[in-house]
Design goal:
Layout: E1 2-8, E2 11-16, H1 20-23, E3 28-34, H2 38-48, H3 54-57, H4 63-66, E4 67-70, E5 73-81, E6 90-98, E7 101-106, H5 111-120, H6 129-165, H7 171-208, H8 213-268, H9 270-278, H10 294-316
Parallel strand pairs: 3-7
Antiparallel strand pairs: 1-2, 1-3, 4-5, 5-6, 6-7
Helix pairs in contact: 6-7, 6-8, 7-8, 8-10, 9-10
C-alpha cells in the first residue's frame, strides 16, 4: 500500500496512490510504502527510479552501502522498533530523499511511522519539508526507544522488589526470575543496537550537509539524547547483572542451607555411631556385655550423644 501525504495550502492531506500519476504530484511530501505489491513496486520504479526490493537486500551489508548519496538522492537503510513489548524486534526500513520528497519502504508497519501518519493528517506542513520530516522520524525513533527503556526499567524494578521480598523462595521461582531477566537483557540489547544504528544514520546526514541550520540543531540535540540513552542502556545491563547475581546468590544460600543441615545431622550422628562401633567390637573381655544393664546403658548413651549436639547446635543457631 502506498500512502501519500500532499501539501495543500498550509496543511497536509493523506491519500492513497491509485496510479503512477499520483506519485508525480509536485505537492507530494511523503510516500509511505507499506508492503507494496508488484504493481506498486512498478510505479516506484517507473516514477522515482527506486527498487523496493533493495530494502530487503540491504539487511546484511556494510554501512557504507546502507547510507549513500547517488544521482541527487540520499539513500538510508535503518532499523526501527516494531513494538515495546517483550517480543519487540526491529523492522528494516529504507528511506529515500529524492526530488523534494521522502519515500519510506518497509514490509511491516512501524509504530513511529504509524503515529507520524496520524499526526500529519490535516495538520500544518512540517518545517523543512522532506528533510525536516526525515529528521523528525529519527527523533521520534529515539523518543520511542526512551519509552521502551523506561518499560524495561519498570520491569527490572518489579523483579528486584519480588526478588528481595521472596529471597527465601523456591528454586522454581528463582528460575522464573532468571528467565524474565534474560528477556529484558535481550530487549535492552536490541535497543542499544537500534540507538547505534540511528546515531550512524544521523552522523551520515550531518556529514552530507543537506540540513539547514535549524535542522542541524535538532539533529545535534537528537544525537545528544542518543548518547544519554546509550549510557542508560549500560546502566540497565549493570542492573540486570546485579539482579542476576543476587538471584544466583539466593539459590546458593538455599543450597548451602540444605548442605548445612545434612552436615549438622552427619556430625550429630557421629557419637552414637562411635558408641555402636565400640560395643560391636569382638573382644572377649568387655564387662558391659555380661551385665543386664549393658544394653539399656548403650542405648541411653546413644540417645544422649544425639540430643546434646542437637541442643548445642540449635543454641548456636546453626539449624536455622
Amino acid at each position: 500500500m502506498l500512502q501519500l501525504f500532499l501539501i495543500e495550502g498550509e496543511c497536509v492531506r493523506q491519500t492513497n496512490a491509485n496510479g503512477p500519476d499520483d506519485l508525480r504530484r509536485p505537492t507530494c511530501l511523503w510516500i509511505d510504502a507499506v508492503a507494496p505489491d508488484q504493481q506498486e513496486m512498478g510505479w516506484l520504479r517507473e516514477v522515482l527510479g527506486i527498487d523496493p526490493e533493495a530494502a530487503q537486500q540491504d539487511e546484511d551489508i556494510e554501512f557504507s552501502a546502507r547510507a549513500y548519496e547517488e544521482g541527487g538522492a540520499v539513500y538510508l537503510r535503518s532499523d526501527f522498533l516494531s513494538g515495546r513489548q517483550q517480543d519487540s524486534s526491529v523492522v528494516p526500513v529504507r528511506l529515500v530523499l529524492k526530488d523534494g520528497r521522502l519515500i519510506t519502504l518497509h514490509e511491516e508497519d512501524v509504530p513511529i511511522l504509524r503515529l507520524l501518519r496520524l499526526r500529519l493528517r490535516n495538520r500544518p506542513a512540517p518545517a523543512g519539508g522532506a528533510v525536516g520530516l526525515l529528521v523528525e522520524i529519527y527523533a521520534r525513533d529515539v523518543e520511542y526507544t526512551a519509552d521502551a527503556l523506561e518499560d524495561i526499567y519498570a520491569e527490572l524494578r518489579d523483579i528486584g522488589a519480588q526478588v528481595l521480598a521472596e529471597r527465601r523462595g523456591s528454586d522454581a521461582e528463582a528460575a522464573e526470575f532468571i528467565a524474565r531477566l534474560a528477556v529484558q537483557e535481550a530487549r535492552n540489547g536490541t535497543l542499544r543496537r537500534n540507538l547505534m544504528d540511528t546515531r550512524r544514520a544521523l552522523s551520515f546526514l550531518a556529514r552530507e550537509r543537506i540540513l539547514d541550520k535549524g535542522q542541524n540543531k535538532v539533529l545535534q540535540q537528537v544525537l545528544h539524547d542518543i548518547e544519554s540513552l546509550y549510557s542508560h542502556t549500560a546502566f540497565v545491563f549493570d542492573k540486570i547483572n546485579f539482579l542476576m547475581d543476587a538471584i544466583v546468590g539466593f539459590i546458593n544460600i538455599n543450597q548451602n542451607k540444605v548442605v548445612k543441615i545434612f552436615t549438622v545431622a552427619a556430625v550429630a550422628m557421629l557419637p552414637p555411631t562411635l558408641i555402636a562401633s565400640i560395643y560391636g567390637m569382638n573382644f572377649e573381655y568387655m564387662p558391659e556385655l555380661s551385665q543386664p544393664w549393658g544394653y539399656p546403658m548403650s542405648l541411653a548413651l546413644m540417645v544422649v550423644s544425639v540430643v546434646v549436639p542437637f541442643w548445642y547446635f540449635r543454641r548456636k543457631g546453626w539449624l536455622k
